[in-house]
Amino acid sequence: MNYTTAPDPHLRTFADLATTRGRARATSGYRRATRGVWIPDHIPDDFVARCASLAFARPEVVVTGWTAARFHGHLWADDHDVVEVAIGRRRLRRPGVRAYQYEIPDSEIEEFLGPGHQPIRVASPGWALFDLARTLDRLPAMIALDGSKHFYCDGPSAVRALAERYSQRRGSVAAKRFAAAADIRSESPMETELRLFLVDSGFDTFESQVKVPRLGVRIDFADRERKIAVEYDGRGHLTPQQHARDLERWRALVADGWIVLPLGIRDLRHRRELVRGQIRDALLSRGWQPAG
Q1: What are the pLDDT digits (tens) for 18-59?
Q2: HEC states along 104-163?
């Protein structure tokens, strides 16, 4: 990652940019990025600048978790205002920093360049996901894994391999289990939540992102055999143009014999039992038999 800043003829390295300054200079074109580091106001206050400042002050840190996932292009990253780092055996307590006292293997560390060419040590894509999968609860862990489709590696496969190689790490069993259940075809965190809802409800006949070529449509979740479609109708579908396309697509599916069940965020948050019953009734009407 090449991170550029406003032209500065005096800037050679981050040491020129982030200098320990007195408190009075903070109001004179500089702001405090972390303890002992003040940077010019023209440098954007984003996670890269915060990581660069922390790396300048504490070179031993390795960025991991959601922050590392953002470096690698994860689009669903959480905790935008928190920098997550591994610090080894030492302690680190600073505002806006979540520090973990464990070490990341050198083979799983990459280097990015921040403002002023400041090196930032960042966990590899696989290790960032491994840390997330072994420390988060099931839903956020699955969201992290499902949303790794833009990584240059197969994220879930990398996590499974790391969980086997570092089986002594806390949470590695859960990380392996989550990685095996991940689906990088998911197109949003809410689609991941909907997929888990279907699985937890015992509706295991649904596949994600199913194409119906003769109709030129793609279904979020479909039982091909029984022609039942479950669609997530999120915020991106609220524009008049997208809503019109959705209606046209759903009418085409219904005319082709499909049962279409569109769901929104309120359904998943507040009407789960009602929705579960509607999906169950649709499956039963098409000859489905519950397991057991």
Answers
A1: 765 555 555 577 888 888 788 888 888 889 999 999 999 899
A2: CCHHHEEEEECHHHCEEEEECHHHHHHHHHHHCCHHHHHHHHHCCCCCCCCHHHHHHHHH
